Amino acid sequence: xRQPQTALAALVFGAGTGTLATExxxxxxxxxxxxxxxxxxxxxxxxxxxxxxxxxxxxGRLADRRPSPRLLGLxxxxxxxxxxxxxxVARPFLDAAVGNLDxxxxxxxxxxxxxxxxxxxxxxxxxxxxSPFAIRLAIADVETAGAVAGxxxxxxxxxxxxxxxxxxxxxxxxxxxxxxxxxxxVVLAFSASLLLGRKIVVLAALLAALIALPPGVVKAERxxxxxxxxxxxxxxxxxxxxxxxLLRLNEGxxxxxxxxxxxxxxxGVWDAFLALPPLLGRPLRSxxxxxxxxxxxxxxxxxxxxxxxxxxVELDPAVSRVGRRFFGLEDIRNLTVHDADARPFLRxxxxxxxxxxxxxxxxxxxxxxxxTREFFRLARARLEPGGILALNIAAVPxxxxxxxxxxxxxxxxxxxxxxxxxxxxxxxxxxFDEPRPTRSPEIVADGxxxxxxxxxxxxxxxxxxxxxxxxxWTDDRAPVEWVTDRMIVAYAARGGELDEDRLPTAP
Length: 507
What we know:
By secondary structure, the protein is of the alpha/beta class. It contains 18 helices and twelve strands. It has an eight-stranded mixed beta sheet, with helices on both faces. Strands 1-2-3-4 form a four-stranded antiparallel beta sheet, with helices on both faces. Helix 1 runs antiparallel to helix 6 and helix 3 runs antiparallel to helix 4 (107-119).
């Protein structure tokens, strides 16, 4: 007997919703372990597509051999149970899989591939079987086969759209990744009940009850003060035994902000920005920090350059909230926080700055649209005459491919470009609106006394960039991810470790 079209249509819609909701939640579940680089996303999207293709093939063949509504319902129910178990299995599995990879970022390549394959591919294969199976059950005669197939694939796509936007915009920010996956399992279980009967509603209700369980801590460690799944990323605040508070995002390898109660100096790359104002040859009056995070740099600027007005630009409002709660962001003098993307903010603002600092990379990537001729031209237009643009560029010892690409592009828009290898893994790339000396004794003598060792280091290490890129990076072509991934993989293959660097200014 042919199954009612409405039940099959609802099942197809629910399966489409579940497939994309699982994929979106998977990206957030993996991010604290492997980051959210193009490699991780390529693994996720590629395996999901392969799983769907395999599911389409298996589902079509199985439907021809056993066109049973009950079998289709059991397939969807199995997918629901798998999705429900995933958040509880994933964290211990990923902890074991990652091992010591926190010190070798290239582990994201292989680690994320097998994590997606083992944790999420089985559910995707099962859900891929639904559409061809449902079409086989719904077709009454050949004359309506095209209409039935078109209607069901349209419903599956509509469900996929819901499964994309609902978790990303509402569910994950509101209730977190674990509960989003459990909610997805509930949707799938209720869809299966349309073919399996009311008894399955009880199982769906039990899955719904699991939503009340508190989420597990991701990669829990001593001193964890706070964690949150924001709309943009996974956020952790950790306090070390010495009292330092650290802001970590996504992969947890890099520290994006540091707070210390006794000093604003950190020993990290944020201190390097404090040495730059004497290069202006005049007092610092205005500064824009593109990538404000929790406010480490503006906090120090408020102490050492108290007359400077600072615009701190941070994409994620949740990071700014964390900054106010744990990093003293609310108390920073002369700081205005803007929750906005860096380049659109710079395009909209009418302000002009003595110094623009670009510290907006997500470890280890500089966003491509902050590394192009068009961006550098815009930044220069927002500088006061004689102003400075400074970029924090991630690098590894022995490979300057990323630095060369960005610095070679910067030379097309700025009269003078220099690089300061402040730390092993951080280079400060500087564009000068007007040619200025960089080794003058006045630079060392100028500025706060506490920062003199840092200025001496800067003057000693800074070198000019004289080589232009043969093909400058543009908004159309800026291979940041490709160059960065190649750099990390090559460094990890050499046995390199991402140990901590320190500048000489921290007490």
